[in-house]
Amino acid sequence: MTRARRSPAGPVPPPARLRVGVVGAGRVGSVLGAALAAAGHDVVAASGVSTASAERAARLLPGVPLLPADEVVAASDLVVLAVPDDTLPGLVAGLAGTGAWRRGQLAFHTSGAHGLAVLAPAEERGVLSLALHPAMTFSGGPEDVARLSGTAFGVTSRPEHRAVAETLSLEMGGEPFWVAEDDRALYHAALVTGANHLVTLVAEAADLLRAAGVDSPARVLGPLLTAALDNGLRRGDAGLTGPVSRGDVGTVAGHLATLAERAPDAVGAYVAMARRTTERAAAAGRLKPHEAAPLTELLDAAGQDVPR
Ligand SMILES: NC(=O)c1ccc[n+]([C@@H]2O[C@H](COP(=O)([O-])OP(=O)(O)OC[C@H]3O[C@@H](n4cnc5c(N)ncnc54)[C@H](OP(=O)(O)O)[C@@H]3O)[C@@H](O)[C@H]2O)c1
User: Fold this and answer.
1) Largest Cα–Cα separation, the chain
2) How much is the mean pLDDT over the chain?
C-alpha cells in the first residue's frame, strides 16, 4: 500500500449524483461511462476525435456531446481518464497546464500499469485521484457493460480515499481489491502474461492445427483449453499435463523438429514456454532433477538456433 499521507484534496465527499466526463471514449471509457450512467450519474461530456470513438460514444453514451478534453474536465465532477497508458502522463500534466483541474473534483484513470503518481499534477490542484483498473478485456461493444458485473477492479488509492474508490467500483458493477503503488507494474505484467499472451497462444495453436489439416481448430481447442484453464486456476502447477510434465524428451524433440520444418516462426515461443514449463514443473516437484536436466539441455540447444 502507498504510504499514508494527508491528501491535498481534503475530506472525502459523500457519494452523490455526479456530473461525469469521459476523457477518451475508447473501448474502456465508453463502457465505464455507460456503467456510471446506469448507476444514476449524469455523463455530461466525452472526448474523442477518431471515427471509432465517435461511433462508440454514439452507441454507448447516446446524446453525450464530444468536446475537447479540457472542456470535458471543466464540465465534470468526476473525470474518467481512459486513454492509452503512454498518453496518460502528458495528458494529466497538460490538463493541469490549461487550468482544467479544480479543487474538489474526483478523477480516476483506468490504466493497469500506472498508479497514483501519474495523477500528481491533478492531485496537487486538489483533485481526489484514484487508479481504478478493471481486470477485464473490452472491445467497446454493448456486451462489455454486462461483463463489468463481478469484474475485479485493481485499485490504488490513498487510504483515506478507499471508501470513494470502493463505492465507484461497486457502482460500475466491479469488485475492488487493493494494489500497492509500487506493485502496479508487476500487477499489470501478471494480467498481460495471463490474458494477452493467452490470446496469442490460442491463435498460434489454431494456426498450427490448420497447418495439420484440422478444419475447425476452435472445436478441438475449446473443450481442451477450457479444461486446461480450469486445471491451472484450481491446481496451479499441479494441473499441468503433457510431455514436459512426464519428462518425455523424445516427444519434445519431435515437436521441435517438425516445427522447425513446417512452422519455423513458432519455434521460439515453443522453446520459451517449454523451458519455463520445465522450470516450474521442477520447482513444483512434478519433475525430478534427472528428468528435468535432459529437457533443459534439449531446449537450450534448440534456443541457440532460434533466429532473433
Ligand atoms: N481495452 C481493454 O481491454 C482495457 C482493459 C482494462 C484497462 N484498459 C486501459 O484503459 C485505457 C484505455 O484503453 P482502451 O483500450 O480503451 O484504449 P482505446 O480504445 O484506444 O481508446 C483510447 C481513447 O483515448 C483517446 N485518446 C488517445 N490519445 C489521446 C490524447 N492524447 N488525449 C485525449 N484523448 C486521447 C482516444 O481518442 P481517439 O479515438 O480520438 O484517438 C480514445 O477515445 C488504457 O490505460 C488501458 O490500459 C484497457
Assistant:
1) 67
2) 94
Q: Is the pLDDT of residue 13 over 90?
A: no
Per the CB < 8 A criterion, the answer to whether 120 and 1 are in contact is: no
Give this prediction's pTM: 0.91
Question: Which residues partner with 129 through β-bridges?
Answer: 107
Choose which residue among 22, 28, 137, 156 to substitute to test ligand 1 binding: the one with the highest number of ligand atoms within 8 A of its C-beta.
28
d(CA 45, CA 280) in angstroms, rounded, equals: 49
Average pLDDT over residues 24-44: 97
Place of cell 446506469: 38
301: Cβ contacts below 8 Å, ≥ 6 apart:
none
3-state secondary structure of 207: helix
Can you read off the three cell numbers belonging to residue 255?
A: 515437436
Q: In whole angstroms, give the CA distance from residue 138 to residue 13.
A: 30
246: which DSSP letter? H
Q: How far is the CA of 27 from the centre of ligand 1 (A)?
A: 7
What is the spatial distance between Cα 288 and Cα 160, in angstroms, rounded to a whole number?
A: 50
Q: pLDDT tens-digit profile of 76-110? A: 999 999 999 999 999 999 999 999 999 999 999 99
Report the nearest-CA residue for atom 31 of ligand 1.
Answer: 87
* Cα dihedral 101, 103, 109, 113 sign: positive
